[in-house]
Structure to design on (773 residues):
């Protein structure tokens, strides 16, 4: 069967190559047909890989290296993309899927443009498939199949991580279609309002899954790694944050192009860059050039091929851009103090913030070239990225009320006063009664300011309360996304600044007190799962009549010869009481277990905020009144 | 406002933004890029400043691991050069943290310049993956 899949992948490769030619020539009908055909063929090809995993076909090298007969069904299935080759196959499939979706849904009334978009998408898919087939083939057979496989990295055997890669790839690869739209628009030399309306929709279709995918990954890291945090500024995390930031900038810039016909060159450039940052991310993750806590499946050769692909596609797009940019003249006149000016400011700030992330991520590489080994961690990002974004968030509620062309700034002082009032109250309340750092109080104020600003803007646009629900879905989408940002800020500030952390070492039966909770280690039992065995600790924690039962586990996966930590989390309101079990130590003949205990306040707000941003994004994809395309 | 003045303001705003980001970044990198040392490098280059966050990598010296009353533990990092660093750490350690195995400790030297106070311990996180910095180091006793 796997040979059949291999064969189909070659067919898909040929169809994509053909699509490139037909599409760029401008034949919309045939290009659409080819795009859909390529997707279907690759889909069946992908299914043969999935099948090999499900039936544990150990004659396939990929399955041998990454699966095990005792592995639960869901992880046999999800294990298909829990490794380099399989995830690249998924990458190709999603890319062809966006081509097929474009063939079906792309309706702009400009057939040649649509055909060329599909053609560029075909070119990108051809490249990805070449990489899959010739540098990371999942179809390789083994001459002497073993009886048992090496199992999937146990850290990846987790529900959130089963869903994380497909979600993330919908985002990463979604930007390939935005790239294709930009390239086709540049070939035509027609980056106008119709182009922008289409591009905005597709950019959102990539942004929403990318947002949710990053959140899933962060949630996984939170409860699976047992380190109590949700973001570590790890290179792999930054690799997903950068396309997200560029994507966010693009979503704001493309609005100006759509509504006013301005910023055309910049919007196109961002549309190209979002996908370039996606490939850069894949390169950083796969090349193993940077030290990462999430490193898996690293291979320098594959890394350099990805880099080559990035230079090729990025160079092609930039050359095209350079040729056409002079013709991309701006729209109507506007003052700096205007919605155009505000969105330009938004883009500048997000872009500079992205550059600081890029610098922090790449700096160890630069230093290594200079003969120095170093790493850049959280303190760097807290000092650069965080203040830059904080400024952007502080002005957001003010400038989102500005009108196109020229804005009335006579009430600016009222806005400033409102901002100082909210932030000041929170800062004073924080320093005083709450006894938290000044900056945490400012952070809370900022979150509330954002939420309040989003609601105010909704009210301002509705003018009358009963008209709120008649507002276009786009306005609701913006409100939810901006309010979600505020909710996220509250959660992030709360979790980061109010978290408490203690390490315990307890013998069975021993008690201690942490953060107001009275802990007792009741027992540690050996237990057994389908493909693991574990030590399961039972702790009780009581505080003011509330009792929590916490059962963290330390699992050993014998096939992968690797232990994992299963944390125990007790939710109280928005906060988590979080316990991870550590190593067993024998001190003076008595066995003693170690535990990391975290109290993480408000952590749920982080995920609720991200979810709101996602829902807002989906809402804003719906067409406004009387518009389509 | 004429288009020229407007562009001037926009460019000015961008320049201020970029410049302040660059200043922030260079300060942050100078203060917060954590240099990596092996015990030999530490002996060669001298100690980092007290409180300066650095990373020290090598192997956990066999027989050096001892535990305190709580969750503290003490061990020695060596790199086969004859140099070594004493480390103290409070917390749980990675599952593959063992005597004779590779380790990277992040932390700083405190009041006592003899003892490295680690806040984070990295070890191999599976049987095949080594922390990147340790790839060039040969394990002294274990061949793995």
């Amino acid at each position: 069967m796997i040979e059949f899949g291999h064969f189909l992948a070659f067919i898909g490769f040929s169809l994509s190559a053909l699509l490139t030619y037909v599409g760029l020539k401008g034949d919309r009908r045939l290009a659409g047909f080819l795009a859909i055909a390529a997707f279907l063929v690759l889909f069946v090809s992908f299914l043969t890989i999935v099948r090999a995993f499900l039936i544990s076909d150990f004659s396939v090298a990929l399955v041998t290296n990454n699966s095990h007969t005792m592995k639960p069904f869901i992880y046999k299935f999800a294990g298909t993309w829990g490794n380099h080759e399989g995830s690249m196959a998924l990458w190709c499939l999603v890319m062809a899927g966006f081509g097929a979706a474009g063939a079906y849904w792309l309706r702009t009334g400009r057939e040649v443009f649509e055909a060329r978009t599909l053609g560029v998408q075909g070119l990108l898919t051809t490249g990805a498939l070449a990489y899959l087939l010739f540098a990371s083939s999942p179809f390789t057979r083994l001459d002497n199949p073993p009886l048992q496989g090496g199992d999937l990295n146990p850290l990846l055997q987790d529900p959130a991580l089963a869903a994380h890669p497909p979600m993330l790839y919908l985002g990463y690869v979604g930007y390939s279609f935005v790239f294709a739209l930009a390239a086709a628009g540049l070939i035509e030399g027609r980056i106008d309002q119709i182009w922008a309306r289409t591009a905005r929709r597709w950019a959102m279709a990539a942004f929403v899954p990318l947002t949710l995918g990053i959140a899933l990954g962060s949630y996984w890291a939170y409860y699976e790694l047992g380190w109590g945090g949700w973001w570590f500024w790890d290179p792999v995390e930054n690799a997903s944050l950068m396309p997200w930031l560029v994507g966010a900038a693009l979503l704001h810039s493309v609005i100006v192009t759509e509504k006013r016909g301005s910023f055309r060159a910049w919007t196109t450039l961002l549309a190209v860059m979002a996908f370039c940052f996606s490939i850069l991310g894949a390169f950083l993750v796969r090349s193993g050039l940077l030290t990462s806590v999430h490193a898996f499946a690293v291979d320098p050769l594959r890394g350099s091929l990805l880099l080559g692909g990035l230079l090729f596609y990025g160079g092609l797009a930039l050359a095209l851009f350079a040729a056409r940019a002079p013709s991309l003249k701006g729209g109507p006149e506007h003052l700096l103090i205007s919605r155009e000016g505000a969105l330009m400011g938004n883009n500048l700030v997000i872009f500079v913030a992205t550059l600081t992330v890029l610098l922090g991520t790449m700096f160890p590489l630069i230093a290594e070239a200079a003969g120095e080994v170093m790493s850049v961690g959280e303190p760097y990002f807290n000092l650069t990225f965080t203040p830059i974004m904080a400024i952007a968030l502080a002005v957001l509620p003010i400038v989102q009320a500005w009108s196109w062309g020229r804005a009335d700034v006579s009430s600016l002082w009222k806005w400033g006063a409102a901002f100082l009032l909210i932030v000041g109250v929170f800062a004073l309340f924080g320093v005083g009664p709450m006894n938290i750092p000044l900056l945490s109080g400012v952070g809370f104020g900022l979150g509330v300011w954002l939420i309040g600003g989003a609601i105010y803007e909704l009210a301002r646009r509705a003018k009358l309360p009963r008209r709120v629900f008649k507002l276009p879905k786009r306005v609701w989408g913006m409100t939810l996304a901006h309010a979600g940002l505020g909710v996220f800020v509250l959660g992030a500030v709360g979790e980061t600044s109010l978290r408490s952390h203690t390490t315990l070492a307890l013998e069975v039966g021993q008690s201690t007190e942490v953060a107001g909770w009275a802990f007792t280690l009741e027992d540690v039992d050996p237990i057994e799962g389908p493909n693991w065995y574990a030590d399961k600790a039972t702790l009780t924690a009581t505080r003011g009549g509330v009792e929590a039962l916490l059962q963290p586990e330390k699992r050993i996966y014998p096939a992968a010869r690797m232990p994992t930590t299963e944390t125990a989390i007790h939710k109280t309101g928005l906060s988590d009481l979080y316990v991870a079990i550590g190593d067993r130590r024998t001190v003076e003949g008595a066995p003693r277990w170690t535990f990391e205990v975290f109290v993480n306040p408000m952590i749920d707000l982080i995920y609720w905020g991200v979810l709101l941003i996602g829902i807002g994004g989906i809402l804003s994809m719906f067409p406004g009144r009387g518009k389509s395309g | 406002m004429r288009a020229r003045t407007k562009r001037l303001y926009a460019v000015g705003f961008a320049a201020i933004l970029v410049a302040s980001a660059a200043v922030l970044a260079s300060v942050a990198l100078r203060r917060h890029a954590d240099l990596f040392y092996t015990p030999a490098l530490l002996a060669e280059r001298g100690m980092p400043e007290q409180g300066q966050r650095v990373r020290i990598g090598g192997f956990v010296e066999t027989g050096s691991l001892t535990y305190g009353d709580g969750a503290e533990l003490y061990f020695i990092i060596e790199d086969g050069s004859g140099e070594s660093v004493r480390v103290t750490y409070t917390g749980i350690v990675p599952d593959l943290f063992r005597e004779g195995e590779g380790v990277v400790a992040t932390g700083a030297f405190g009041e006592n310049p003899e003892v490295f106070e680690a806040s984070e311990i990295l070890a191999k996180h599976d049987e095949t993956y080594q922390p990147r910095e340790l790839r060039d180091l040969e394990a002294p006793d274990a061949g793995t």
Summary: Chain B touches chain A at residues 1, 3, 6, 9-10, 13-14, 17-18, 21, 24-25, 27-29, 31-36, 53, 55, 67, 69-71, 73, 90-93, 95-97, 106, 122, 125-127, 129, 131-133 (CB under 8 Å). Confidence is low (pLDDT under 50) at residues 140-144 of chain B. The CA atoms of residues 59 and 139 of chain B lie 7 Å apart.
